[in-house]
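Protocol step 4 of 5: obtain the predicted structure for the target chain.
Materials: sequence only (see below). No template structures provided, no constraints applied. The aim of this step is simply to have a reference model before the mutagenesis design in step 5. Sequence pasted as it appears in the construct record:
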Amino acid sequence: MSLDLVSNITQILSSSLVSRIASSLGLDKALTEKALQAGVPGLLAAFTSLVSRPNGAQALNGAIARQQPTLLSSLGSMLGGSAQSNIIETGTNTLTSLLGSGTTSALTNAVGQYAGIGNAGSKSLMGLLGPVVMGVLGQQQRASGLDATGLASLLNSQKDNIASALPAGFSNYLSDTGILDALGSSAGVRGPSATTGYSGSSRPSYSTMPPPVPRPTQSWGWIIPALAALLIGGLAWNWFTRPHPTETAANPPPAKVETPSTAPASTGTSTGASGLGPMPASFEALENLHGIKVGDVDVGAQLASAETSMRSAIASVQDVSTAQAAMTPLTNSANDFVRLSKLLDQLPAQSRKTVVNTIIATRPALDQLFDKALAIPGVSPIIKPTIDKVHSQFDALTTA
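Step 4 output (structure tokens):
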């Protein structure tokens, strides 16, 4: 029987173990099962993308080597106590180190939204799942004597299995995150027809398909003279009907009358700013916050402006000099974001929920820009303290 990593992992996550995980995290068992059905192939897809990048396989290989060798056999006994907190914290830190905070947040948020367990529940669950997945990879690695290159080959061999295990609709939550890129076209197909072409039957052999029907032979010798005649006629028509210089001078076009624009100034939240590309849907949704006020302060509009300004500032970072230039607008926007977030407690519960959920939805796109900038040589020491401040505020909103 050929190896199927998804099946190996789900076999470890037995029904009784899932019940204990759900209970220890305060989650519904059915929703926990749904989250794991998405989280297992989602995390394997993220690892497959990781090993396709330079030094990615070596990083994953090192993380697997640092896993507790007895974790898989003793996971059940660790649930519910202090050991569980240590596993979740270590697992979350390891995933963030390997995948980057943006990718980790995107995957965590996607699982939480798909399964309906929320971001906080999803974060704890993925913190537990990460060590389990790496533990199974470690077992296969040791059994086959694989080095980092062999580990990458193992994951690449599982692309079809991973893609077919992704629940229907879950891929929509991962669009534009890059997590599914390594799976290629396989990530876009689901169900039996993804592998057979027809539900319940195998794909027909080319040898049994009817031969193509020959087309009747036609004579095309007349077409060249006809085309030549049309071309000559078109040139003649263009010459006799186009305006000549004297006519153009005698009949100049009417002058364009400038009228003052009455359209409101753009806030930058509904279309992409210059150089940023298309605006992510989550950022477009910030427009819906306009008019949500605390007293006379339009908190929604100002939060939308602060986040969009942060996005614009961080996207301008290309090297050390542009990072230094971006610090003033980035810091100002970050300070505005933190200050305005503190006003949310003064909103009615439903309005506050709307604002918080909309802001949290922008985090994956913002974190991707943060990670890209932090990876530029010499930039991290300049911008990281400000980015950490923004991350802390996002975390506070997530757990509030």
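Step 4 remarks: The chain has a mean pLDDT of 78. The two ends are 48 Å apart (CA to CA).
Proceed to step 5.
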